[in-house]
Protein 1
Amino acid sequence: MPLSDVAIRKAKPTNKAQRLFDGGGLYLEVSPKGGKWWRYKYRILGKEKRLSLGTYPDVSLAAARELHADARKLVAVGVDPSAHRKATKIAGMERAANSFETVAREWFAKKSPKLVKGYSEKVLARLEGDLFPVLGKLPVSEITAPEVLRAMRRIEDRGAYETAHRVLQTCGQVFRYAIASGRATADPTIALRGALTPATGTHHAAITAPEPFGGLLRALDGYDGSLITKHALRLAPLVFVRPGELRHAEWAEFDLEAKVWCIPAAKMKMRDDHIVPLSRQALAIIEELHELTGGGKYLFPSTRSPRRPMSNNTLNAALRRLGYDKDAHTAHGFRASARTLLDEVLHFRPDYIEHQLAHTVRDPNGRAYNRTAHLPERHKMMQGWADYLDVLREGQSDTVVPIRKRAHR
């Protein structure tokens, strides 16, 4: 006679295990300790076996009957349901081990030590925020170009066209790693070349005309927020390094007697050591700053913890407070300002400028110059640049005399 919920609830444990049969090999085993287990007794290839279907009441009578019916169908076609369950579990584990998220995190773990800290944080944030929600659980070998495009469209829908291009590049790197590690055979991002909306506009807005740049310098001097932030704002145009390099500046990297800031390769985008000659004006700011933060690790520590550098949004937020929004000028924009004015107004040699921007510059034989290339000339250029900024700050841009003639390049 088939079981009922009432009969199951009334079943009490005895000193021996009890079996309450429902029919077709399905029964409920009541242990002496009171546990109630669903079992399915079947024969496969002439051998009697049992399959556990869960415990009551977690698995109800109706649910047990459904599981039993599925298992009987397998037996009917000669498939052992116990072996099938193990194979399914293994397949699920392999699927999880080869999911896009698992492979991407493995790729990131190997890649991140070679990335600048601030940049590596951005890469991880893009993976977690833009890719994992859409592609994370999918087997990396089964992801198609339309599925990748769907993830990119979600980014474009919020107007982040430049980000979409960058995320697609990261996505391609993950797929190429999956191919190299034997977990995929193709990179679906290749089929998406030209499929994204072109990124338009200037990514890092910058003031590049002398007179308004002088106005910006005066605004920086008048900043009335945090003194540490004010020093960072004033130093930024003098050294024109990337914002992340400035934020992560450490006192141990500065040789004030030699008038240089030596940034280690681990912090540089191009993964090469970089030397920043320090002008008199830059040294004066650094010496003032030493009284505030010289006892710690960072020149510009976080307000929350001196063991961490200031937030990556601090300088841009300060610029917005001064009235310069993201379309007018950004912290990264100081690099474009310096590059333009050093070339077009002060007429310094382009290779000196590119060296100081930490861009790769090659000699006539195609070899990259080392970090000390043209260092004396770069010292002169950085001092000339600082003197020029003093002139602009005073509102005398029309009286500037080029420091070098183009004919002398």
Note: Residues 100-192 form a domain with the DNA polymerase; domain 1 fold (CATH 1.10.150.130).
Protein 2
Amino acid sequence: MRLLDTVLAQGEAITALRRDIHRHPELCFQEQRTSDLIAAKLTEWGIPVIRGLGKTGVVGIVQNGSSPRAVGLRADIDALPMTEKNAFAHASAYPGRMHACGHDGHTAMLMAAAQHLSRYRNFDGTVYLIFQPAEEGGGGAREMIKDGLFERCPMDAVFGAHNWPGMPAGTFALAPGPVFASSNEFKITLRGKGAHGAMPHLGLDPVPAACQLVTAFQTIINRNKRPIDTGVISVTMLKAGEATNVIPDSVELQGTVRTFTVEVLDLIERRMKELTEGLAGAFELTAEFDFHRNYPPTVNHVAETAFVRQALVDMGATVQDFEPTMGAEDFSYYLLHKPGCYFLIGNGDGTHRVGGHGLGPCTLHNPSYDFNDALIPVGGTMWVRLAEAFLNATP
């Protein structure tokens, strides 16, 4: 792979920046120190910044020439609410907060590109460097858009990338169409009448109804939707009772629903509600059904995906097809408004971790995870080449 010498030369400094961010993780919409650090560095490199979009978001603006064309490059900056099990020098300094998804690395790769783009500006147009807060459940992309991201930073396309453990380090994967699923949550409460466990006929027991409801939900997947459509219903929490000899008054069920299309999501939500109310009535219970839609599906645009593939091939990268995942990603909000592509960069098998790492695997959302710093020059070069290719291409 042909990496930029200028990006390679700054590798040590950007690695130090990445590890500083890793050691000081901040949760969604609380990324003040991280935002200050990013803004200060961009300003030092002569890049104007916009702050305050999505509360703690930062956008750097690199311009050259006279073309009105513009491209957005996005990195997420927030951490997860979990305790790190690693003990190396840059491990999290705060219990209950950890960069376990590699957002520190995503930020570092875009910062490496920012420094090069500012110094050489081998393009005609504008590059918007989007450092987004609150990807982990807060919908930071949605909030930046609400705050006027695309009005203040009009762009023709937007691109994002995520590291992927298990893929060979520095390789890439992408695909057109749906690549990440919608993320949705439900909470259902079945209310009956408590009684002594030895005298169930004196009460209205919600537990059998809850058990049947868990099973009934799966008939939506295998009987209501088309077999070729993708959908997942997972009941992940079930709360009932306080004593072994007492029939509880109520049962609470919670879980997640994932789909690749809004149409399938509409079907699943409607049928879940119908089954909940129907079973509750059959058991003489009352039901409360709450369904909350979080992130929409992440759907890559065909032309922009083909563009990314070609740009990566041109820089000598290994590119493979991406098998879509039922995980979710709030980059989806950008793709509802602008053409673009969200793709993967391999993080390796975990052997890059230095001494002092935890005993767990180097997988996303694992307390033993750490970003592979060897990706920083790869990702930095990638963003530079994508921006240059997009802005210097004939519209």
Note: The chain has two domains: 5-181+297-392, 184-293.
